[in-house]
Amino acid sequence: MAGIISCAAYVPIYRLSRAEIAGAWGAAPGPGERAVANHDEDSITMAVAAALNCLAGFSKEDLDGVYFASTTSPYCEKQAAAVVAGALGLGKNIRTADFAGTLRAGTTALRAALDAVAAGSARHVLVVCADSRLGYPRGGNETAFGDGAAALLIGKAGAALTVEGAWSVSEEFYDSWRPDGERFIRTAEDRFAREAGYTRVLPEAVKAAMQEYGLPARDIAKAAFYGPDPKQHSLAAKKIGLEKTQVQDPLLNDIGNTGCALPLMILAAALEDAGAGDRLLLSAYGDGCDVFILRATDQIDRIRSQRGIKYYLRNKKSIGYMKHLLWKGLLPTEPPARPPQQMVSTPALWRDREWGLALRGVRCRNCGAVQFPRQRVCVWCIAGDRFDPYDFTGRTGKIVSFSHDNLAAAVDPPTTICAVDFPEGGRIMCDMTDRDPEEVKTGLPVEMTFRKIHTVGGIHNYYWKCRPCRE
Amino acid sequence: MGSIKDRVAIIGMGCARFGERWESSAEDLIIEAVSEAYADAGIEQKDIQAAWVGTAGSGRTGQCLAEPLKLYYTPITRVENACATGSDAFRNACYAVAAGIYDLVLVVGFEKLKDSGFSGLELKNPYGTNRTQTLTAPSGFALLATSYFARYGLTQEEGKLMLAKISAKSHKNGALNPKAHFQSEVPLGTILKAPMVAWPLGLYDCCGVSDGAAAAIVCRSDMARSFREDPIYVKALQICVGNKSGFLRNDYNFTHVEETYRAGTAAYREAEVTNPRTEISLAEVHDCFSITEAVTMEDLQFSPRGRVKEDVDAGFFDLAGELPVNPDGGLKCFGHPIGASGLRMLYEVYKQLQGKAGLRQIKNPRLGLTHNLGGHPAGPTISVIIAGNQGP
Does CATH number 3.40.47.10 belong to domain B137-206+228-388? Predict the structure, then answer.
């Protein structure tokens, strides 16, 4: 029987309070805060971060599929799942697929992964799901939305959650949508979207699933399900017949509505406190509804320390409204008097994918020295072509030296550049992200993170940066 | 390996006025420098048998020199070695003369940077992935400052003050130099309060971007005195090219430049200098950033490791000090037209050794040193040249 072996989430470190947003417009402040992706993040980078969190302690070599789900893939034509697979350094004999176009994309991908594993056509599939949707400035969506990602590892043996039931309904409906070529979500009238949409469809589908599988509401330990706002979410919970204690916090107050990633991120939060034997309900809404009935096994303890939601609620930095507009590309700013960005070479991007996308260096077989990026001649012993591949992802390094550069053309100067040394060997020169300049010191422990360097000629150029280790 | 010591001599030099020469093209700058060199040497263009032209990006092939000067059918090599371009052009010319292939040759270094329309240097990478740390010159060299302060226990304030004294010293020298881009003193307070360019380097820790050109006429030593009474003899020509190993190896700690140390050691051996701190009369070093000059003092063995601050505080490198460094104002006051800088440095050494440095004249100089650093401290290209006014 197919199940969920591991589950993790990713939330950008930066948070924008709803009071800040309201203050910018002279409006009444709302509660809580929303997560805002840094200018060097997008749905692909967040998906990679969630994937690495999910795979911590598990082998990448066993993967034979990556499914990527988002309504905000950076490309309309170019497979995001292939980029994620490249960043994870997976071989080419895997199946990759993108799921898009609906807030149910994450659970649709989950269903497909479970089906593939159950049918025996795949052994392990990684489902990654991320969204960074845009609401119009000064609108309700801007305030309600958040950016984030989740990842699940699907397989048979060692499942931490077994799937006791799955149920899907399709419903053609306009409550929120985005046509091709537009950047902002459009929403229908509130009352219509609420009454005829979410608060009708989701409870109806969940109750149908519960009936189908003979599951009384009282047997549900925690329900993790999508909600467009806290009020509608509570109403849906009541309609399903759940007590407050059975409802997993939908993260809307602290992180925001993270689109198709939301239900999976809520699930990741639920798993941090779940015990073996617990029954969990998972549901996503959008153009219909997906429902899953899950049962935690005794393997649940093994994945409790994956980076779920608690880690990201502990570690956060506040930004103001202007930064949010700047990072989302909503504010044209004066370009610096610097040369235009040079086009990247597509052959070089392909040829260098091992170190560029997968952060793979080499270890010299002659003298044992680790170096990055790949070399033909060892920089220590001058031996030629005697190397084994060496993964740098997941390793912690220390800052040897750094500078904050105000001159470099950047979305949000200064740019921090560093030399990072790794205790097991090797040095990487890179930019640092997710930091205040004041907190950077020599000796600071850092980890590597997958980010977007820039976009030039329509190419989102991905590479790795370092970021300070957090508690 | 052989030695260049006393085998060739410089018998004429010229230097354009460096600066934002909006009204001058590369051709204008070349002619300004070369005319002065011909007049200084007392020769005509038809006497030139071969030429070497150094430019990092303002011209291609030897044609970039032949075209403005109307040199016909002349062997001309274009040289590029980053910031050591001008010095390496000079080095190659000297070897050809020492080999006896040519008797009289011309060396020119030039760069026209201010047509770009941008601030700062345009660092063009060959087609690649751009998967790299963000690369500008100031932040690359700022890594030296961050590490130097940390390693030798300088507080931010102490470190910044040391760097400010270096820049202030150079500005004071440049104020005495009609060829410099910047010709006014800058007080310490102004330097310390200036905005950050790449932490911890501020505006006055960074040299400017300028246009410029300089030229030299070289012949064999045994012919030198037929041109003038005071030829300047080449004592050492050294290049040391790094391989960016500091980016890959964690035994490089960003507090010194090994290639400078090795080029300096080789130059001292070639010139038969045993105590650089006392025997070198003046030095023109690559102060692209104030921290570069500080670290170079240690790498060239003028100051003991980790202790350049003591010499800076004591005024050891001031114009009136024991070992004047950048007496013409340095890159700080001339900017860095890449191909020209090495020859502009040599021009100051040449004039000082001949007693013709005017208000900047050092007493009784015997040996002058030039130093260039191209690329990044973690594996740069270095040149060290030593010249003297005592012949064989």
Answer: yes
